[in-house]
Amino acid sequence: MLSVSNLAIARGGVPVLEGLSFALNAGEALVLRGPNGIGKTTLLRTLAGLQPPLAGEVHVGEDVLAYAGHADGVKPTLSVTENLDFWARIFGRSEIAPAIAAFDLEGLTSRAAQNLSAGQKRRLGLARMMVTGRPVWMFDEPTVSLDAASVALFASAVRTHLAGGGAAVMATHIDLGLTEARVLDLGPYRAAAGVGAAEFDSDEAFL
Ligand SMILES: Nc1ncnc2c1ncn2[C@@H]1O[C@H](COP(=O)(O)OP(=O)(O)OP(=O)(O)O)[C@@H](O)[C@H]1O
């Protein structure tokens, strides 16, 4: 579903990771690990096509990925239902009920996103992935603001997605309880300092 070969990536013109190769098949989850600043977000942005690699290749089909970055990507004045409707329609779909149920949003459907708590808003942001219909979900620190019960909801949604033939890539510092996930420690791929490429700083707030 997704593979990278001998990938090198830079942020702000500075190489951060190099020599990365991995493949992700249907039903698999990959957890990206590494200390702050090592390049997890940069790797996800590169996989999502928001910035080009310095070297190497990303192989992924069209309309395969859905990316949830640091921002929740919700429209503050729209309700929970309206936000999910909006995202479903962006991806040419209409079904939102399973996402509402999976992220325990039933009691909040008519509330404006701006009036949700931080954790509720994060649950809505994560629920967006379910309405995309895309097979590969990518998350950057998905559990920020989530309590233990909500982390479990998230892990369960990912597990169901994997069981249905989907795949997931996640940058996270916490243990999600997804024992089936492979862990990719980015430490050994830290780039030697060098002359980098130009900066491509796309706006990731949208996703
Ligand atoms: N816009 C930018 N311009 C220059 N350098 C940047 C920019 N954004 C990030 N960096 C640097 O690129 C490196 C990789 O950052 P990145 O956000 O990918 O790391 P990360 O592993 O996701 O970190 P964290 O765990 O803190 O989220 C860091 O050293 C960071 O300071």
UniProtKB/TrEMBL annotation:
| GO molecular function annotations of the record | ATP binding; ATP hydrolysis activity; transmembrane transporter activity
Q: Which SMART domains did the record assign?
A: AAA
Keywords for the protein's UniProt record, in alphabetical order: ATP-binding, Cytochrome c-type biogenesis, Membrane, Nucleotide-binding, Translocase, Transport
Give residue ranges for domain ABC transporter. Answer: 2-205
Q: Does the entry feature the keyword rRNA processing, yes or no? A: no
Please verify whether the record's keywords include Glycoprotein.
no
Q: Which InterPro entries match?
A: AAA+_ATPase (IPR003593), ABC_transporter-like_ATP-bd (IPR003439), ABC_transporter-like_CS (IPR017871), ABC_transptr_haem_export_CcmA (IPR005895), P-loop_NTPase (IPR027417)
What does the entry give for GO biological process? Answer: cytochrome complex assembly
Protein name, entry field: Heme ABC exporter ATP-binding protein CcmA
